[in-house]
Amino acid sequence: MILKSVLRRLFQGALVLMLAISLGGCETFVESTKDIVSALPDLPPSVDSTPVEPNWVQVTGYAPISLQAGQTEQHKVLMAMKASKLDAYRELTVLVHGQYLAGTTSVKDMLLQNNQFQGAVAGIVRGARVVKSYPIQTDVYATILEIDLNQVQRAWQSSQ
After folding, report:
1. Residue 46: which H helix or E strand, with range?
2. How far apart are CA 49 and CA 126, in angstroms?
3. Which residue, of 12, 41, 47, 97, has the greatest Cβ tally within 10 A?
4. Which pTM was predicted?
């Protein structure tokens, strides 16, 4: 019986000691976390909240109506509308991404024989909007697109 009561007191004492150590450890951990957080350097804000004025640029694409494939005049006008929009997107792509030029010049006996060059453009343009699409005189269709260059720059920077 005495052995049982001694073991019980030993067990209760060990339990109280373990609880005291674990509770004391929690408090030390909380204080050390506070110390660590207060010792961290101040970080700069991750997002600049300064509003930036839009930098809108406009381009115009053109397409002849009478040269379009189509059975009726209305169909040719629709095709010219689409072609002028694509031409405007090409112009916008040149503005945003630049244009690749390749050229050759041949000279024989100090006389220019041949002078050729080719241009190409490739890129993705997002965020452009059609401002106006309209006929010019009787045979040309025009489409005006615009884009905010600041938006293009932000999209490019976020992709890097």
Report:
1. none
2. 23
3. 97
4. 0.62
Smallest CA-to-CA distance from 60 within 37, 32, 83, 28 is with 83
Closest of 157, 160, 132 to residue 62, by C-alpha:
132
* Residues 151, 156, 158, 159, Cα dihedral to 10°: 140
Strand duo 140-148 + 56-64: pairing: antiparallel
* CA distance to 44, 45, 56, 156, per residue, from 50 (Å): 14, 12, 18, 19
Tokens read off for 53: 């004025």
How many Å apart are CA 154 and CA 37, to the nearest integer?
Answer: 32
Cα–Cα distances in Å, from 117 out to 66, 87, 96, 100, 159? 28, 20, 22, 10, 33
pLDDT tens digit string along 95-142? 888 898 899 999 999 999 999 989 999 988 888 999 999 999 899 999
